[in-house]
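> call design_seq(struct)
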């Protein structure tokens, strides 16, 4: 006799402010309310009305005016304590096991007042064997004690708005049996064989048992396999052959229904399984023998509508479908393990997963994670931490848990750490230890050698070249440095590019647990700065800036021969981090941001990506030679024949140059193939223009295999004698000349200046710049722009400044080129503007006009032309200075932004 009983519904509850106790239960009178199971406590606040509950001690309402260098993570005043759940169950004989699908953060089980076991951890289900001596025929009392008071674990799933909010997150089930049960089934593909399957079945029963098994394709494609076996009590290992077995992959996620029954007919197990083999060789990865590049996103556990993780499979299918549509095939779960529904969705839709235990995990928790996740073909990489210090003690521990992974899940890969702090970078000098080696970069070679002994892949941090400094990244430098790793490198947290906060999502938070907490503190500081009405413009333009840097960053990663994948931070906005963290291609509701299309994202985030080696040089002189070096990063099918096309278009669509020919050479899968390396001379149109370079490959059927687009700008040459003089500082003599009627150009020294760079600010920071606005104005002449600073401003922004006009009267703020700072500490900033003073005008341009760059020279020329129109009717009204005293400021120079907390988030570390 086998039976399964769902124990959902309403349970009696008692609440305590004390930690979970394994030797004392509440009295009957203390059960004063009821809660549904499964449910999070915060979704049923009425259930806690009988008690004066403890609340989250880390909760604080956010006030950015009180923040210093960083802003705290979001939080909510959730209930803290221990909840004892009580209900009656009926028992009619046999062995019994209770499965609690998930709890936050720990759980103990009691049967008829007797302690039956304790489960620590929120990452996996809990299973309790109910001893026969504690069971009684008929009605029994079951109590589950769930507590969220522990503080020795930390991870994304228990940070932010949801924090450590408690509850039973998944179903509770009671299984009873008499003859025996299959407690665990783990099937894997044996490498180096003709589709042989290694079986590991754990039989709990008093004696051996004969079973029948069947593997049936879920989509009815392919062969059904079946057979018999005899199981002994304990673990059973055997091998079966299945030559026609279809393998699971990100492109074709083939799953099988595994059914096991006893010889007398009753079903013992029904489970979904899949078979795949992810292998590492040298610096590359292969899935089922085919090269694969992991195009990943960082999963930060942000769920705006439910706050805590959803319980429905459909929610995760929706998330993953949106990610797959823009090229992602990999999810890195940051210091967390997805729930069963999330993993099932990944199995069904072909999303490869890396799991990470919470910070502070122990051996039993690691074993639970291995045994739970190994049933899912999607979970292919196990990582042991994030940005922790890899000193000798920790390396020894990693070796041990790597051994456990190889023993329990030999068909998966081990990643020791996300960002190898103490080996390849340091938060403080002592992190490195000894010995040190300076080439090809400062690192600890002994620790790296130790780590490589037991690691399959490495969660490598690319020194900011693919994140904090991505606008200056160079794949050649990456390859030079990465040569020492000799393992597949999965690049850690790419981009991290911030955008402005999207106030159009505000209404969608109404009525949710999060409510208006994201937007209210931002509105407060924007209103104070007089910038609230510009929020939507800033948001749109910030998305455009982030978009172009993201494309550049990911193309750099694809250009490297030594990078096997990445996790992008982020695919969506994850606002619990630092309270407002818009970093995504999509918003938090999985909708593409303004200016993004799925087709454009796939150009740089698809299996096959065309690359053009432009670097950061996007401005050219007309008539100058432009070198076109096209390469294909191919992780789609091998392309042996077809056609190759590229063209350069003028803004009006006219073709400036083109090439259409047969495929220059075969393009194997898993390789970078140089397609063409040629030089053309840019046309001389006599006026500046933005040129679009488009390239695409077609297969032999004329279908587009992949395509990509880039922009460059061409400018007429400007002679030195046509450039206006730039006066460096706003000083009394200059003001006197302006007051007397001259129109002069000044670099702005003497005004409050803040350094600029073409790198957008990292998400969530208090400081930095997030958007640019270029307003149409006669002083720009025909300088090409689309309302924001695209790549043509790269050199103009580097080694430059913007003027901080926050302390000036608001009516003086009318920049032609505006720089929008962080919405957490908003400043009124301008890099190009004019003021009327007396009979003259003062043009202030703090951009890098001295750069030997075609765009800088042409813009300077246009400003000079504007200066020559003084009093000739071509000028527009501009703010007028009432008195030169407004400029009598001594700022002490240029404000420099401090280095960001690159590669180390103190929030992700347990407090000592």
């Amino acid at each position: 006799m086998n039976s399964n009983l769902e124990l959902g519904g309403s349970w009696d509850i008692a609440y305590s402010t004390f930690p979970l106790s394994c030797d004392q239960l509440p009295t009957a009178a203390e059960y004063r309310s009821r809660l549904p199971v499964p449910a999070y406590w915060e979704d049923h606040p009425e259930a806690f009305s009988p008690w004066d509950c403890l609340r989250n001690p880390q909760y604080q309402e956010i006030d950015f005016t009180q923040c210093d260098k960083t802003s705290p993570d979001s939080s909510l005043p959730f209930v803290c304590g221990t909840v004892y759940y009580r209900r009656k169950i009926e028992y009619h004989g046999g062995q019994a096991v209770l499965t609690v699908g998930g709890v936050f953060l720990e759980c103990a089980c009691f049967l008829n007042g007797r302690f039956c076991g304790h489960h620590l951890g929120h990452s996996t289900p809990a299973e309790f064997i109910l001893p026969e001596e504690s069971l009684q025929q008929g009605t029994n009392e079951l109590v589950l004690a769930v507590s969220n008071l522990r503080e020795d674990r930390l991870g994304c799933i228990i940070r932010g708005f949801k924090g450590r909010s408690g509850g039973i997150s998944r179903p509770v089930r009671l299984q009873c049996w008499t003859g025996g049960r299959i407690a665990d089934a783990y099937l894997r593909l044996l490498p180096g064989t003709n589709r042989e399957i290694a079986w590991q079945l754990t039989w709990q029963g008093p004696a051996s048992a004969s079973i029948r098994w069947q593997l049936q394709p879920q989509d009815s494609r392919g062969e059904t396999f079946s057979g018999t076996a005899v199981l002994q009590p304990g673990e059973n290992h055997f091998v079966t052959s299945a030559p026609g077995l279809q393998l699971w992959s990100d492109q074709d996620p083939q799953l099988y229904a595994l059914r096991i029954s006893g010889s007398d007919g009753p079903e013992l197990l029904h489970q979904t399984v899949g078979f795949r083999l992810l292998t590492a060789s040298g610096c590359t990865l292969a899935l089922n023998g085919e090269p694969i590049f992991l195009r990943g996103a960082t999963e930060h556990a942000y769920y705006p509508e439910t706050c805590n993780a959803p319980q429905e499979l459909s929610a995760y299918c929706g998330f993953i479908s949106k990610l797959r549509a823009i090229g992602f095939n990999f999810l890195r779960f940051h210091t967390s393990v997805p729930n069963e529904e999330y993993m099932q969705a990944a199995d069904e839709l072909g999303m490869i997963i890396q799991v990470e235990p919470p910070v502070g995990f122990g051996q039993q928790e690691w074993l639970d994670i291995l045994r739970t996740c190994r049933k899912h073909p999607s979970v292919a990489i196990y990582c042991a931490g994030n940005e922790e210090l890899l000193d000798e003690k920790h390396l020894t521990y990693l070796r041990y848990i790597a051994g456990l992974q190889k023993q329990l899940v030999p068909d998966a890969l081990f990643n020791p750490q996300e960002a190898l702090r103490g080996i390849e970078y340091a938060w403080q000098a002592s992190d490195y230890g000894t010995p040190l080696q300076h080439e090809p970069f400062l690192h600890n070679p002994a620790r790296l050698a130790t780590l490589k002994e037991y690691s399959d892949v490495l969660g490598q941090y690319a020194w900011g070249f693919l994140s904090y400094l991505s606008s200056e990244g160079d794949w050649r430098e990456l390859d030079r440095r990465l040569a020492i790793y000799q393992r597949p490198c999965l690049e850690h947290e790419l981009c991290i590019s911030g955008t402005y906060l999207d106030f159009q999502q505000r209404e969608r938070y109404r009525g949710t647990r999060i409510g208006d907490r994201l937007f209210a503190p931002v509105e407060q500081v924007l209103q104070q700065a007089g910038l609230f009405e510009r929020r939507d413009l800033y948001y749109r333009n910030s998305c455009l800036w982030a978009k172009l840097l993201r494309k550049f960053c990911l193309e750099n990663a694809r250009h490297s021969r030594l990078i096997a994948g990445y996790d992008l931070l982020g695919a969506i906005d994850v606002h619990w981090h630092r309270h407002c963290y818009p970093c995504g291609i999509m918003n938090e509701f999985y909708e593409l941001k303004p200016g993004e299309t799925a087709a454009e994202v796939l150009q740089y985030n698809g299996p096959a990506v065309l690359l053009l080696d432009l670097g950061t040089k996007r401005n050219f002189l007309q008539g100058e030679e432009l070198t076109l070096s096209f390469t294909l990063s191919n992780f789609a099918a091998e392309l042996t024949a077809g056609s190759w096309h590229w063209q350069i278009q003028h803004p009006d669509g006219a073709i400036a140059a083109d090439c259409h020919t047969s495929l220059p050479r075969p393009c194997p899968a898993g390789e970078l193939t140089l397609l063409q390396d040629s030089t053309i001379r840019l046309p001389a149109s006599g006026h500046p223009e933005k040129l679009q370079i488009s390239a695409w490959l077609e297969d032999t059927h004329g279908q587009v295999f992949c395509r990509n687009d880039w922009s460059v700008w061409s400018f007429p040459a400007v002679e030195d004698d046509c450039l206006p003089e730039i006066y460096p500082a706003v000083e009394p003599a200059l003001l006197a000349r302006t007051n007397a009627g001259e129109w002069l150009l000044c670099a702005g020294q003497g005004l409050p200046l803040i350094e600029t760079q073409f790198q957008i600010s990292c998400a969530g920071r208090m400081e930095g710049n997030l958007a640019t606005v270029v307003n149409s104005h006669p002083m720009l002449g025909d300088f090409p722009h689309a309302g924001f600073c695209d790549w043509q401003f790269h050199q103009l922004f580097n080694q430059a400044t913007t003027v901080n006009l926050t302390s000036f009267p608001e009516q003086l703020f009318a920049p032609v080129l505006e720089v929008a700072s962080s919405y957490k500490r908003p400043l009124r900033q301008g890099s190009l503007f004019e003021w009327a003073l007396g009979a003259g005008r003062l043009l202030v341009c703090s951009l890098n006009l001295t750069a030997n760059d075609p765009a800088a020279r042409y813009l300077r020329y246009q400003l000079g032309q504007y200066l020559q129109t003084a009093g000739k009717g071509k000028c527009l009204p501009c703010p007028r200075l009432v008195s030169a005293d407004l400029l009598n400021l001594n700022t002490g120079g240029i404000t420099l932004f401090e280095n960001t907390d690159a590669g180390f988030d103190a929030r992700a570390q347990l407090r000592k």
